[in-house]
Amino acid sequence: MAHLTRRSVLRGSLALAAAGTGTLSAPHIAKAAATTATVWFAQGFVQDEDVALRKAVADYEKQSGNKIELSIIPFAPERQKIISALTSGVVPDLFDSNPAEIVQLYGWQDRWVDVSDVVETQRSQFSETALLAAQAYNNVTKKRATYGVPLRAAVVPCHIWKSLVEKAGMKIEDIPKTWDAYFDFFKKVQDNLRKLGERKVYGLGFQVTANGVDPYNLFMAFLVAHGGQDIVTKDGKLHLDDPKVKAAAIKSAAYLGGAYRDGYVPPSAINWNDADDNNAFHAKLMVMDVDGTLSTEVAIKEKHPEWYFNEIVTHGTPGYPNDNAGKPVPAIVGFTNGLIPKGAKNVTVAKEFLKYFIQPKVIGEFVELGLGRWLPVMPALAKSPFWQNPKDPHLKGYIQQGLLDPTRPDYYVFNLAMAEVRSQHVWSMAMIDVAKDGAKPEAAIDKAFKRIQEIFAKYPMA
Amino acid sequence: MMDTASVVEIGRTERGRATLWRFLRGNLKGTEYTWALAFVIPYVAVFVTFVAYPVVYGLWMGSEPSLYRELFADPIYQQTVVNTVLYLALGVNVKMFLALLLSGFFMRPGWWMKTLLLIFVLPWAVPQVSTFISIHWMLNGEWGFLNNVLYTLFHIEGAHWLNDRWTALGAVIVSHIWKWTPFWTLILLAGRMAIPLEIRDTARVDGATGVRGFVHITFPLLANLYLICTLLSTIFLLGDFNTVYFVSGGGPANSTHVLGTLGIRNAFDIAQPRLGVAAVMSALPMVIPLVIVLMRKLRTTEVQL
């Protein structure tokens, strides 16, 4: 039996200290084989999304012989994990853009590996909007480059309870086609429902809140529809001095805040997070919701097929309202991109996996197995029987709106400052000022514009 | 050749070095010193890795003055400071005062008192995240339990508790008090039980019963414990995240954040980790004096409960 000696205790202590230091300085991936890549991806809203991703990874591993260490992480923790990893410098080889704007946010800081060679393999397949949104301005090189590999997309359609509209004695077919009249229709639905004794059903599910990404998406949809689409142009320049932009912003704040103030939006909307409007819609607290992706419909498909097939109507194309002059409103598309951070240990395998993953057959299957919550990023994939299924009441209109009709990327693609406008909830505060504090829309927008100018001043572009 | 003065000087230096070396070795000799090192090294390694490094890293992340300029100019931060002060002042003091009173109540004899204590401790024993989420839903203006009860029983349309800064902050404070009062009651109850029976009996013979007994006997003997508990609770509460995050979510319109939740918002929602660290670091001028006072109190050698 070995005796405990002074030297052995000392050696043990030093070894323990050295092991501890070694573990901290060398993350697990450093010890992985050369053919292994670590991948993080956000957990899906429905389990099928995760199943689809695991299948794609398993197929790749089988085909390539490489190993993918896949971590599927819930949305919010993954976002925190990504930002922590980028802050500490201990990064995985590949992750999805969560939040979407990190492509531009960290592209500015020169933190991504250029993936134009990956995108090049399928360039002809991607939509123009997807290719644009994969780029970011690099403040170190003073150039734009392709840092993201488009994986999937989403737009903001309208979700409507047909059963509630009919209960109010109205018809889906009667919904007007122009912007303000479209939303006014649901105010009338609420008025009628009140007369029938429905004291807790509201006409409009506007996210007049300062949490999550929904309120920004909502306000931007209104801004574009009211003629403010040039708030930031492709060259990254801000145009708050454009009278059309200002008028559009005022009209948007007035309509959204006014609807809340006038009692057409659930009062709790002022404190909603991104999931709360979905829950409220499912609880039939409101007649309609303006919300990104098909998560509202997909979430209940299995449990309540009668809702999915008969009771809920999705207004993509057709259905989504035109502007007040009757012209179609281009949908703002958000993308999930694959990103390889600088400092990744196995860029080669990460790129190889991405090249495999974005093959039309593979990425198309990945999106479809996720029940169509997300859109594909390649127009050719819209022709698949899944998206064109005549028996499905939601998918065809959704993909038409988000992939085949005119679209545009979000404005932070052109200037990173807009990402901070989004995360700081500048538009939300304008809506809330009108909705809750009784501010005049003009004053609320003046305040918002001042804040936007301050934010843009932080990101001067060459 | 050296003169006498030089030799004396060298001798002094050598003696000085030897004294310093002995001092550094803690007057330990030979194997004693080696054994001491063997036992100390693992603790030092753990301390450096898990205590010193994170603190220094945090200080480094929040070291740029420009961060604080940006932070102090942010109206949300200004509101947050007010919220934090209110949360501490009301949350800690109301909770500790209630705990003090309730600890006296639970000193009563009887099996039913023990049963009641068991029930009373439940809010503290159940997981806090799920209870705070339940409170959040209970307070929902449209379908929450509270407003439904009000409407069903009295036909009153309840307020939208979480839609207003002050009612939302009030809900956060009440939730905190509800959650943590049982814990501090138990601590103070233990303190009361440690007061020797003879002292209480003697006081009773002298006529110090009821309020007089509390004012002149119980509270003076509990004062030190009460102060330490209050300081500890204040330090815990300064770093609190769960209550605000799950009850009010920092809303409406970011108006009920405290420093802990604002730090997380800045770090991860806005993706500015340094600004998040700066928000939390800005509490240091309050935390450090509290820790110093607490340490001093804990070092008190007087016989006090």
Which terms summarize this structure?
heterodimer; A: 462 residues; D-Maltodextrin-Binding Protein, domain 2; 2 domains; six-stranded mixed beta sheet; four-stranded mixed beta sheet; 12 strands; 45% helix; globular; B: MetI-like fold; 14 helices; flat
Structural notes for this entry:
The complex is a heterodimer of chains A (462) and B (305). Chain A is α/β, with parallel strands linked by helices. Chain A folds into two domains: 34-154 and 334-406, Periplasmic binding protein-like II (D-Maltodextrin-Binding Protein, domain 2, 3-Layer(aba) Sandwich); 158-315 and 424-457, D-Maltodextrin-Binding Protein, domain 2 (3-Layer(aba) Sandwich). Chain A contains 19 helices and twelve strands. Chain A is globular, with a radius of gyration of 24 Å. Mean pLDDT of chain A is 90; it is low at 12-33. By secondary structure, chain B is mostly helical. Helices cover 78% and strands 0% of the residues of chain B. Chain B has 14 helices and no strands. Chain B has helices at 4-24, 30-61, 65-73, 75-105, 111-125, 128-138, 145-154, 165-193, 197-205, 210-238, 242-247, 259-269, 273-281, 284-298. In chain B, helix 5 packs across helix 8, helix 10 packs across helix 14 (284-298) and helix 12 (259-269) packs antiparallel against helix 13 (273-281). Chain B is flat, with a radius of gyration of 27 Å. Chains A and B meet through helix 1, helix 3 and helix 18 of A and helix 2 and helix 12 of B.
Structure summarized in a few sentences:
By secondary structure, chain A is α/β, with parallel strands linked by helices.
CATH homologous superfamily of the largest domain in chain A, by name? Periplasmic binding protein-like II
| Total number of distinct structural domains of chain A | 2
Main sheet attributes: strand count, strand direction, barrel closure of chain A:
6 strands, mixed
Structural class of chain A: alpha/beta
- In whole angstroms, the N-to-C terminal distance of chain B is 69 Å
Q: Roughly what is the average pLDDT of chain A, rounded to an integer?
A: 90
- Gyration radius of chain B, rounded: 27 Å
CATH domain fold name of the largest domain in chain B: MetI-like fold
**CATH hierarchy class name of the largest domain in chain A:** Alpha Beta
Basic shape of chain A: globular
Instruction: Give me the oligomer status.
Output: heterodimer
The CATH architecture term of the largest domain in chain A is 3-Layer(aba) Sandwich
Radius of gyration of chain A: 24 Å
Tally of strands of chain B: 0
Q: Helical amount among residues of chain A, as a percent range?
A: 40-55%
